[in-house]
Structures are given as C-alpha cells and as structure tokens.
Design a protein that fits this description.
By secondary structure, the protein is α/β, with parallel strands linked by helices. It has two domains: 98 residues, Urease, subunit C, domain 1, CATH 2.30.40.10; 284 residues, Metal-dependent hydrolases (TIM Barrel). The strands form two sheets. Strands 6, 7, 8, 9, 10, 11, 12, 13 and 14 form a nine-stranded parallel sheet that branches. A hairpin with a 2-residue loop joins β16 and β17. α8 runs parallel beside α9 and α12 crosses α13. The longest helix has 19 residues. It binds zinc ion. The site of zinc ion has 4 residues, from loops. Zinc ion binds next to loops.
Amino acid sequence: MLQADLIIEHAHMMTISSLGEIVSGTLVVRGEAIIDIIDGDTHPYTAKRIIDAGGALVLPGFVDCHTHLVHSGSRANELQYRLQGMSYQEIQQRGGGIYASVRATRAADPETLYRESLERANMCLEHGTTTAEIKTGYGLEPAAEKKMFDVIHRLNKESDLETVATFLGPHVYPEDQEPEKYLDWLLHEGLDLAKDQAEFVDIYCDIGAYSFADTEQFLKAAKEKGLALKIHSGQFESLGATGLAADMSAVSVDHLDHVAPAEFDALLRSDTVPVFLPGCSYYLRSTYPDARPYLDAGMPVALATDYNPGTCPSLSLPIMMSLAVMHMGFTTEEALKAVTINAAKAINREDRIGSIEKGKQADIVITSVKNFDDMIAMFGVNCVDIVIKKGKTI
Ligand SMILES: [Zn+2]
C-alpha cells in the first residue's frame, strides 16, 4: 500500500480540470498537495485519516477574488436608508457609506480590527471559501492603510484562510485632505507601500470616486513600478476605464454593470479576467448585468462577493453563484468555474488553486448534497459540510 495523509473516498467530484466530473472516485492528499485522483473506488493507498464522502459532491475550495473583508464596525443602519429609497451616493453624502467605515477603521486598535476580521475570515471558510483577496482602502492615510495590510497578512499567517493583499488607497478621496495632495501621496509613497505590502493595486473609477484621468495616471505609475493591476469599473457609469485597464493588461476588471462596446472589445483582445459582483446588484436593488456575451466570447469570467459593510455584506459565494445563474445568464457549471479556476486566475493563482488536479494545493470542499444543481437551487442554505485547506481539515 502507498502511504498518504488523507483519502476522500466515494466522492462525486467536479474537478474543474481535464478530468471533468467523476461520479464516484477517490481523492488522495499528502502534505499540502493533491497527489492522486482516481476514477473509481478501489485504490492502492492507506492513510491515518480517511473520509467516506458517501457519494456527496466534492468541489475545489472556492476563491473569493474581490473582498473588502478588513474593516471595523457595521453599516447595517444603511439598510433602512436604502429601503427608504436613498441612493448609494446620497448615503455617502450624508456621511455614511465608505466614509463611515473609514472613520471606524482608523479609530480601531490593531487587535480589535484583527478580531473583527478574523470572525469574517472564519465565516468565509464556513461557506467554502479557502482563499480570499482582501483590499485596503478604509484607511485613506498612511498609518491606517498599513494597519489594514498588517491585518491582511496576519490573517494569512494565523487563520486558516489564505489571503491575498491588494492596495486600494484610491478607493475614494479622503474627507479630510485636499484631493491633489492625496493623489500625490498615492502616486509616490502610496505606491511604495503597495510595492512592499501588496500583490495588486486597485482603483475605484466611477462617479463619486476617481476620474478617468486620475485612474490613467495611477495605473501607469503602478505599472512602471512593476505592480499588477486591478480596477473597480462601471458599477454606476462607464467612464472608459474598463477598456483602459484591459489595454494595460490588468489582471482583472471588476463590477462591469456598465460597459461600452469598445470596452468589451478591449477585454476580448486581452487576458484580463472580467469579474462580476452580483451581490451588489442584489443589495443595491439594481439591474443585474448580462454576463452571457462575455461567456459566449470565451472570456474567463469570474464571480466574487465584493464583501463590504455597505453594498454587499455577504461572504457567501454559493449565494453569488445562485444569483448569477438566476439573473445573469450563467449555466450552473459556468458559475462554479467562475468561483474556482477563473477566480484563481483573477489573483494569478490558477497554477496552484481553483481545481482538483494532481500537484495542486489540497483545498477541498465536501458538501452535504449529491449534485451541484442542489447547491444552486437551495439558495441561502449552507451546503458546505467539511472544508480542507492545504490538506488540513478545518
Ligand atoms: Zn469592491
């Protein structure tokens, strides 16, 4: 017999790899990696830990490629404003929105910020997310941005959630500083901080946030420093930054509720991952964008939660998949690819995570359902039973 550390038997696997769907198979883990996948129930392995999945659906760990998970405080009060018909911009003008989170995050001591964020990281894991990208952008000044980075890195070290750090210094302009001064900080010291602390930089280009010209300047400066680019674009209006980011080989362009035809063409000729965030459309009660043209064009479309305390306070990727299938033209299998291999591509990790393949990291979700369609159909029910991260059962 061959020695392994963990064997999952009688697994109905959707591998999201060339192995396709395996109705009853065996998944073998040694250390942090998947070392074998067998189509069938007989195998030559032995291990201390054997899980009998009993025919349950087994999936790659989910990848949330766009979150604002680190922040202090709650903005649940904004729900009532929203129900009264107040828009995102009106709530922000009344001192709510992003600025409320900025004030709370600046005021929080590092330990409190870590504890609040750790609770959310554990919530991610409970819903099958094993890797999450996390953005700064609730600091909007040097010390608080650094404090957010410290929490993101500490979560990666001390929690079971793998985290990926993105600098979103240009989230909005701070309330308490001249925009020109802040932009100057972003373009120099801000990008130096990003170079030291982050894998990606991001900018929010939309009405009420950064203009096209600011965005172009920031992305160019970031690229010159060798940083990989991401962008929030087209949530409320298309300012042209989606096309710009695609032409600048951004790793991903996120939101895409409003995209001009020329921007779609720019995405088409690029390697940039289009990331849709249906939780925002749900919570802002706006129209869902149609992802079908992107999927039909063969783009590696991803889905993420955009978890944040204002416009999508949910960390559940299964809910996002249900919304995408019901409202945005995704097939169930396309939705699964969008939170696994394509989401991994949106954070430059498609060679390590996002599918069940030999040699990949053993990030696995064992569900309580037999078929993937059951998971999509049972929206709001957590069908995640066991989560395995880097070979370790959580
Ligand atoms: Zn976002």
